[in-house]
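--- STAGE predict ---
source: upstream dedup step, 1 unique chain passed
mode: sequence only
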Amino acid sequence: MYKIAVMGDYDSIYGFATLGLDTFPVDDPEYGVTLLKRLAEDNYAVIYMTEALASDLNKEIDRYREVMKPAIILIPGISGNTGAGIAGVKKSVEQAVGSDILFNEE
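--- STAGE serialize ---
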């Protein structure tokens, strides 16, 4: 059975444990890279990651963009929304359908 993980600073992710998701607090980007690799190999189909942590792990996240699993979904942390999550969704939709159907301002 596939699992769901949440990575990021403790204050941003601890509430997800009440939903039954596996939480992994990360304060060090180097540990984040190691953890992401481990989770990807350990049957995690979805990994939610705070935008702040993702900004430090861009190279590693790019390795998983073209594979089926894990899906890495960016979420805002307690420090606020940086827009990276929405930008990622926009890019994925544009790539899938060939145009911007979500945020087209026409």
